[in-house]
Design a protein that fits this description.
Structural class: mainly alpha
Helix content: over 70%
Order of helices and strands: HHHHHHHHHHHHHHHH
Radius of gyration: 23 Å
Largest sheet: none
Strand content: under 5%
Number of helices: 16
Number of strands: 0
Low-confidence stretches: 1-15, 268-276
Bound molecules: zinc ion
Distance between the termini: 46 Å
């Protein structure tokens, strides 16, 4: 299901949700807005739903209307528009309008200076603009405000990774996965840095945890099978490959790996000190 606070790279991670329940609720709210276009509650809810469904221009229109209405439930309750500004910023980030996105994240920071997620947004924007030092500072601030912020570690890891600082990237990906074993961006990053460094024990551990929850993810399972093969764990490799083929019988790389495993041709351990 959709998360309520997404930075751009989390969006890429979780995809966009458009279930029937969302559509039904949106229909209901749009009927309310037909009857009363200035209904502040309905505008806010419609904005959130449209945002979570990935319909960004429509979400922006509703959220801006909420900000301009004189019947805003947030104002009435004496609360700030932090979440509204965050959603506007995330919408503009998704539409690649970096300037407006940054402006709204900055407004969110001004409203709630000690919250991590606006800094995550600013860090992600800076990273997309290849301003890596600046991005790094934002992720560090986010981590200072919220020490268990897995996304801050993922962001720092990605910055080290693009700078080819694999050991530092590896450490940061690990920290992210310790807090959130479900983060696919970090799993993929850990896999890539593991390959750079020839060290597979940690990534195998986190892939196994991920697969204990996502048992039908054949891409990750195949990844694990090839790592077992690299580490010389041939019977584990065979078992994992057969599981992949049970779900996806014609996956060519799995067919090929299984054939190699039967022939005993796979590379075993030439990377590690304990090699054969
Ligand atoms: Zn208001």
């Amino acid at each position: 299901m959709a998360k309520t606070s997404q930075t751009a790279f989390l969006l890429a991670n979780s995809g966009v949700t458009e279930t029937n329940a969302y559509k039904q609720e949106l229909d209901r709210i749009q009927r309310r807005l037909l009857a009363d276009p200035g209904d502040g509650d309905a505008l806010g809810r419609a904005g959130t739903l449209l945002y979570e469904m990935g319909r960004f221009p429509e979400a922006i229109a509703h959220l801006k209307k909420l900000l301009s209405t004189h019947r805003c439930p947030l104002c009435k309750a004496g609360r700030t528009h932090y979440r509204v500004f965050m959603q506007l910023a995330d919408c503009y980030a998704a539409l690649n309008d970096f300037q407006l996105s940054e402006q709204y994240y900055q407004t969110a920071v001004d409203l709630a200076p000690a919250r991590a997620d606006a800094y995550l947004g600013l860090g992600t924007l800076a990273m997309r603009k290849e301003q890596f030092d600046r991005a790094s500072k934002f992720f560090q601030i986010a981590g200072d405000f919220q020490p268990d912020c897995s996304e801050a570690f993922a962001g720092l890891a990605m910055i080290h990774h693009q700078g080819a600082e694999y050991a530092e990237a590896f450490e940061m990906y690990l920290k992210c996965l310790e807090l959130d074993t479900d983060n696919l961006v970090a799993l993929l990053g850990l896999f890539q840095t593991s390959c750079e460094m020839g060290n597979f024990s940690q990534i195998i551990y986190y892939l196994e945890i991920y697969l204990s929850i996502h048992q039908d993810d054949t891409s990750v399972l195949f990844c694990l099978a090839s790592l077992y093969a690299k580490e010389g764990r041939l019977s584990d490799a065979r078992q994992a490959t057969m599981k992949v083929l049970a779900m996806e019988p014609h996956k060519p790389e799995a067919v090929k790996l299984l054939a190699e495993l039967k022939d005993g041709q796979t590379e075993t351990g030439h990377r590690s000190g304990a090699g054969t």
